Amino acid sequence: MFNNEMAFKKIINDPYQVVDEMVEGIVLAHSDLLKFANNNKRAVVRKDAPIKDKVGVLIGGGSGHEPAFLGYVGKGLADGAAIGNVFASPSPDPIVDATKAINGGKGVVYMYGNYAGDIMNFDMAAEMCQMEDIPVKTVLVTDDIASAPLDKKSERRGVAGDFYVFKIAGAAADMGMELDDVCRLAEKANDMTISMGVALGPCSLPHTLEPSFVLEDNEMEIGLGIHGEAGVRKGPLQSADEITTELMDKILNEMDGSKKVSVLVNGLGSTPLMELYIMYRKTYEILNKNQIEIHSSFVGEYVTSLEMNGASITLMKLDEELQPLLERETLCSMFRV
Amino acid sequence: MKKELNTNEFIQIILSICDNVEKEKDYLSELDRATGDGDHGVTMSIGWNAVKEKITTLDDNLTFDKICMQIASSFLSAVGASAGPLYATALMRGGAKLKDLFVINSSHISDFFEAAANGIQDRGKANLGDKTMLDVWLPTAEKIKETSNNTEDIIEILEKGSHAANESMLSTKEMLSKKGRSSKLGERSRGHIDPGAASSALIFRTFHEAIQNL
């Protein structure tokens, strides 16, 4: 486990080049699926973009959350991703370049986690694109229970729930829906998606190699953000079943009688799959006991935080409208649905 | 007593800001680790290094507004983040008050900082007391305006501004964060200086020091 005395070690060249070098690697590795927009190394789009008469889905955010966000670019999911520095919003430039590259004539929806920096940069880019007559709408992801109470859902930050919200919007756009309908479904998916996480150890920025927060050897932090922002409660490290029960208690409080869900147990970067599946086992048991049907399960790394040690549980409540969109086939570089 | 500032002198000041940000980047990141994601020093360093690179390639005959626009767009492109749109908007709005000018005086400087502070407020939608960089910019711009009503000496104006910036930066320590990532901390955000307020105060301090040394 990481602590203050132990240095962070990373396989990198120059810390100020990590993002460019990573993106180059990704596009080289997946050249059958991805390309740069306007030769901008921070704007990656589907190889076959733009798709005529399809709403463009543009996602984005800081680096360090891989496979989010460029790993989600592909058929049935996002058409493009704008990529920022580590944990920092992309600037308007790559957002504008990607927007133009994926606009198939039906407009573009911007989707990203609810963070002040992302909102400012994406809004500036949206204004620039609208001046060039590309209709742009925005849907923010706000799934993290720990960051604000339910009556202030719009203030919550976006974490692993990105996966479900992007998936639903991507499927809706893939089916040929109009911009307003894609946005309505994305907003509905966001309303139906709730997450809660736990951290056992910090990550570090490549530039500073300093721990993003400090936990004692036997401590954990409930409700920590995906950039190392402090959580809601620090306490002694508990067993997998106890942690899962605490996270699920909070999540089940917001179920409003829903009887069918999809489950995502997400690793934050350095937590082994072994531990994620141990958490999944308990999640399954709890849902069963509460007579909630599990429609589908995703266990692995979907939204990470560099080498942070920890995990989150996300549920998306399903109804007849969302279920077929979740089931629709997806082909992107880093995972399949 | 210094009554005027020309574009070459302004560029010298900007270069001093670039150097001081580089020197203070670890301190700024450390402040940010307490309440945010720990990258403010990194972001500022990336941004002002991009500015430094840009400035060396600028034409000699640019007016203040054009210089501000160039600095703003290179900073914004390099960093994104929150700092990008906020500082870039400040420079663009401030620069717009200095249209077609090669030389500026005390009242231009007052207009520049007032427009810059308002730009930050418009872009970030924060209010006074939310524990953000605005808590430095609004009172400092106000102090600069007040001082420029009494003197034409831009060194004295920036000296007062720099002091006001330092005091308001320190005042963010006891504030409760209501904006940005740190706002999710609630009471735990108290006791820490806001990193954006700290980088803003650093800029005002450098502005004053550099203008003295011209």
Mean pLDDT of chain B: 95
Number of strands of chain B: 2
Order of helices and strands of chain B: EHHHHEHHHH
Q: Judging by the overall fold, what is the CATH architecture of chain B?
A: Alpha Horseshoe
Total strands of chain A: 14
CATH class of chain B: Mainly Alpha
What does the main sheet of chain B amount to?
A: 2 strands, antiparallel
Q: What number of structural domains do the residues of chain A give?
A: 2
Strand order in the sheet with the most strands of chain B? 1-2
Q: Would you write up a description of this structure?
A:
The complex is a heterodimer of chains A (about 325) and B (about 210). Chain A is an alpha/beta fold and about 325 residues long. Chain A has helices spanning about 20-30, 90-100, 115-130, 160-175, 180-190, 240-250, 275-290, 320-325; strands spanning about 35, 40-45, 55-65, 75, 80-85, 110-115, 135-140, 195-200, 220, 235, 260-265, 295-300, 310-315, 330. In chain A, α2 (about 90-100) packs across α3 (about 115-130) and α4 (about 160-175) packs antiparallel against α5 (about 180-190). The longest helix of chain A is centred in the last third of the chain and has 17 residues, at about 275-290. Chain A is globular and about 55 Å long. The two termini of chain A are about 30 Å apart. A two-stranded antiparallel ribbon of chain B has the order 1-2. Chain B is globular and about 50 Å long. Chain B has eight helices and two strands; from the N terminus they run βααααβαααα. Chain B is mainly alpha-helical and about 210 residues long. The chains are: A alpha/beta (about 325), B mainly alpha (about 210). At the A-B interface, β5 and α3 of A face α1, α2, α3 and α4 of B.
